[in-house]
């Protein structure tokens, strides 16, 4: 057993011991096929980690109060194939750096086994597999139940906390992503079955191996900045126990599969079978390659469901407009930019530049408000707005009637105009509360010459 496997084994053992010693009242009181009160649902953050400790610190501090668990994936190599230590896993084992967060941290160390070129290089197959495994194993590790919310993206994409907290605690928005179709049905009802029991050949799959059973309106919902972003990452999605258990959604599949379902109805309750996998529909059967030769759920698609602005309107895809930030150019030193460039899937953008040329290119892009990777897309200059009071922070008025009345007015009041402006220029709470620690995010000149 090499050191990587040993670290993985120790980490998993520590996590399992924690599960045994920690009471889980939600599991003992809530059945899989019960729809919980939205006010009691949980929120999970599934993270890919390479070594960006500054962004990880920001992520954990910003979301600790509203996220129930952070599942953090890291591997023993970068997407480009360069070997690397398991930084986060070793930090948990050897230091108390994240002692204040450890009750919500679930490390997921994995070994990358894919080594192929899908036409776009060797990095993208590894990234696709990592995202797929992260969502599958993440849902299992948190014991996801119906209507729980999970978000997935990179560390440099941050949704706004005041939006996430309302999505978690308030109902009434679920149809934007999940559509209309109700929750899972009890298997105690003889008319309810699962297409994972016995022969499921009547359920067709597309060319990617995805089951052609409709469960949602959209794969996920994104958070979009109005001026400087063309991608809505990270995305959030609702965990649907109907999908996970293999139950048909009556909204659009009932008539299509009515005949085959009727022949399979029985009093059998698969949840009583110890060999039945309740997360089967959120898995993919072949993760040894990126050729999509298996069947099941492609977790890597969650992040890209609301990617292109031009397609949002024709596809009638909702997003949380002005709902987050993209910190792709906010790393503390130029050397960390180099590490990112040589690690991530778009590394070919800088393949033919020397280190010094690369540094100059990155600094030039940042100072002139261009996207630091790929084509030189010009960004809108968004001047930040700090809170008027350090002790009170940003003051919001999100009362429905207030916004409804003011949006109808031809001439907006000064107060309402200030609220709208604030939503475009606010920054994460942890940054304005810790201006020295995050000086390189408030003033971009800090760190660029380091």
TrEMBL record:
Query: What biological-process GO terms show up in the record?
Result: N-acetylglucosamine metabolic process
- Which GO MF terms are attached to this record? beta-1,4-mannosylglycoprotein 4-beta-N-acetylglucosaminyltransferase activity
Determine the domain of life of the protein's source: Eukaryota
Q: Which segment of the chain is annotated as a signal peptide?
A: none
According to its UniProt record, what is one Pfam family this protein matches? Glyco_transf_17
Region annotated Disordered sits at 250-276
Q: Which residues cross the membrane?
A: none
Where does it sit, as one GO cellular component term?
membrane
Q: What is this protein called?
A: Glycosyltransferase family 17 protein
Q: Which organism is it from?
A: Neocallimastix californiae
Source species taxonomy: Eukaryota, Fungi, Fungi incertae sedis, Chytridiomycota, Chytridiomycota incertae sedis
